[in-house]
Design brief:
single chain; 338 residues; alpha+beta; three-stranded antiparallel β-sheet; 12 helices; 39% helix
């Protein structure tokens, strides 16, 4: 059933993708023709039957077994020479004319491929910023649907073993530029918990984001508002969240890493403080600080009198005067009794 639902969701997603690409020229007859030809293209793969039931499941993971836009256009051309499909000829030709950019050597020919990506990878970055307007929206909708489908697990056992996924939408308000995209973002946020997923809606200003604040309030465990805000932005948030004058002053504080965490009606101020290791990794900042009687090593400080024992491979937690990270490289935490 999960695979059947995924296949149906794919059909809807592709229809929306084509609708965005073609724009206002996409008519109801063209939509009907696309649905019919897309279904016929999928049936050719042998991976689904006419009712949408899955077949040859062992082939599903390989993107090469699934149809591309080129395969779909081939189906369209076959239908144009089939008298039994004559009622759809005009709409099919219109589809082909409006997707000419997908032909080899044209601007959208990169869309005709069998590529896929592993949604189980630990870190995945998808950048669509370089795409032209119209195409960017179409691809964004398609990618969000792919991510959403992959995150939905088919069994309770798989769900229990699944690690939480964090999806960060950089400049998230830009995804709300059109009504259709805004609807997809709202749907993604509301379905996130079912997929054991956390959605991070990252934005530098409130342009376009104000309309989604009620949805965020209703569907998130907590909200982090970074400080250094303008008075205008603070007042915009204040329409949805009750802020005291102290809260407002906090949000307008200058500096890096300061935030106000909103959870269960509480407003908790905080600050992101990087450890020495984080500074080295992210900022290439190496702290050469030294203190009398103290040995500073990478991400911790230890009394210099016991460094010779540390060098033999043993270190005790009560020798450490300051720890700037979660672990010390080369050492495994253990109880003294073990």
């Amino acid at each position: 059933e999960a695979r059947k639902a995924a296949y149906r969701r794919t059909q809807v997603s592709l229809k929306k993708n084509i609708e965005f690409l073609i724009g206002s020229n996409f008519t109801t007859p063209m939509k009907s023709a696309f649905i019919a030809t897309a279904k016929a293209t999928y049936l050719k793969t042998g991976l689904v039957d006419k009712k949408g039931n899955s077949r040859d499941i062992h082939k599903w993971a390989d993107g090469k077994n699934w149809p591309s836009y080129g395969d779909w256009k081939k189906t369209c051309r076959e239908w144009l020479s089939d008298e039994s499909k004559k009622s759809k000829w005009k709409s099919i030709q219109a589809l082909l004319d409006n997707t000419e950019e997908m032909e080899e050597g044209n601007a959208w020919d990169w869309m005709d491929n069998h590529n896929t990506f592993d949604a189980t990878g630990r870190f995945i970055t998808i950048d669509v910023s370089g795409l032209e307007d119209g195409v960017k929206e179409a691809v964004t909708i398609l990618l969000m649907d792919i991510i959403n489908m992959r995150l939905k697990t088919p069994s309770p056992e798989a769900y229990k073993k699944k690690r939480r996924t964090i999806l960060t939408l950089d400049e998230g308000a830009a995804l709300l530029a059109t009504q259709t995209q805004a609807k997809y973002i709202v749907k993604l946020i509301r379905e996130a918990r079912a997929g054991k997923m956390s959605v991070c809606f990252d934005n530098q200003d409130l342009d376009g984001a104000a309309s989604i604040l009620p949805v965020l309030k209703a569907n998130t465990d907590f909200i982090i508002l970074m400080c250094n805000m303008t008075k205008e932005n603070v007042e915009e948030f204040a329409k949805e969240f009750y802020f005291t004058e102290k809260d407002k002053a906090r949000l307008m504080e200058k500096g890096k890493g300061k935030y106000l965490l909103l959870r269960l009606g509480q407003k908790i101020p905080g600050e992101v403080v990087l450890t020495k290791k984080m500074k080295k990794i992210f900022l290439n900042d190496v702290d050469a600080e030294s203190k009398a009687g103290v040995c500073i090593s990478d991400n911790y400080e230890i009394d210099s009198r016991v460094t010779w024992i540390r060098d033999k491979g043993l270190i005790a937690s009560n020798w450490i005067t300051k720890l700037d990270d979660y672990e010390i490289e080369g050492f495994t935490p253990t109880d003294a009794t073990s």
